[in-house]
Amino acid sequence: MITTEKLVYQHDNHYYEGSLSWDDAKAGPRPVVMIAHTFRGQGAFENEKSVHLAGLGYLAFAIDLYGQGRRAATPEVAANLMNELNDNRPLLEARLLHTLETISRHRLANSKKVAAIGFCFGGKCVLDLARSGANVIGVVSFHGIYDAPDHLEHTPIKAAVLILHGWEDPLAKPDSLVALGQELTRKGADWQILTFGHTGHAFTNPNAKDEKGGMFYQPTSNARAWRKMQEFLGEVFEDVFG
């Protein structure tokens, strides 16, 4: 049976509220997968991914990078919340590292086997987590944003990296994908990029319907990306139940 509960944690005099899921039919510590949210903030989309990952045997943590109660009901509010961190990448790094430390201390966490996945803005976040040199085994970016922060330019990337990208994504055009590949190579990462044709931004989100704007759900690409993520996690963790 999948158990889900809120996890409230504190950092820099602020509270954050994530959602934690696991299969309580399994005893003892298990690998951890952090889920970084879209620009709207942690919510139902990420919580659903957490439940699915718990069903695969992981301790899944839909993290909160904005703060308790700070969620966006409109794209305008979402952009403002996101840009607080886009404009201060060291602050984003600090929140990510504290979140990693928090979940690594959980009684069900195998702290030596932690990975992170992220969607849209969350895809940028998990890349920044890898760029920080943090002790995560792997990260997966779904339709992420690829611009690199200046302050981590000279930090090697220890984590394996999987990029799942829509070729027609208007927010991450082919030149940014090439630049990312060059960055990952320069920093010594074990990296893969899988690009889906006829696919734009937000291709994992059934509520994304702006085809003219390049932001639309693509069920085939979504299914392929999720399968590839499962394969990647199995590879980096080596044994889900180890």
Explain this structure to me?
The protein is α/β, with parallel strands linked by helices and about 240 residues long. The protein has a single domain (about 1-235), classed as Alpha/Beta hydrolase fold, catalytic domain (Rossmann fold). Helices cover about 35% and strands about 25% of the residues. The protein contains 6 helices and 10 strands. The protein has helices spanning about 45-55, 75-85, 90-105, 120-130, 175-185, 220-235, and strands spanning about 1-10, 15-25, 30-35, 60, 110-120, 140, 160-165, 190-195, 210, 215. The strands form 2 sheets. An 8-stranded mixed beta sheet has the order 1-2-4-3-5-6-7-8, sandwiched between helices. Strands 9-10 form a two-stranded antiparallel ribbon. A hairpin with a 2-residue loop joins strand 1 (about 1-10) and strand 2. The protein is globular, with a radius of gyration of 17 Å. The two termini are about 20 Å apart. The mean pLDDT is about 95.
SSE layout and pairings?
Blueprint: E1 2-11, E2 14-23, E3 30-36, H1 44-55, E4 59-62, H2 75-86, H3 89-104, E5 109-119, H4 121-131, E6 138-142, E7 160-166, H5 174-186, E8 191-196, E9 209-210, E10 215-216, H6 219-237
Parallel strand pairs: 3-4, 3-5, 5-6, 6-7, 7-8
Antiparallel strand pairs: 1-2, 2-4, 9-10
Termini separation: 20 Å
Strand order of the largest sheet: 1-2-4-3-5-6-7-8
CATH class: Alpha Beta
Provide the succession of SSEs: EEEHEHHEHEEHEEEH
How many structural domains does the protein architecture include?
1
Rg, rounded, reads 17 Å
Strand content: 25-35%
Stretches where pLDDT falls below 50 for ≥5 residues?
none
Number of helices: 6
Helix fraction bin: 25-40%
CATH topology: Rossmann fold
Judged by helices, strands and strand pairing, the structural class is alpha/beta
Mean pLDDT: 96
How many strand segments? 10
The CATH architecture can be given as: 3-Layer(aba) Sandwich
Under CATH, the homologous superfamily reads Alpha/Beta hydrolase fold, catalytic domain
Biggest beta sheet summary: 8 strands, mixed
Overall form: globular
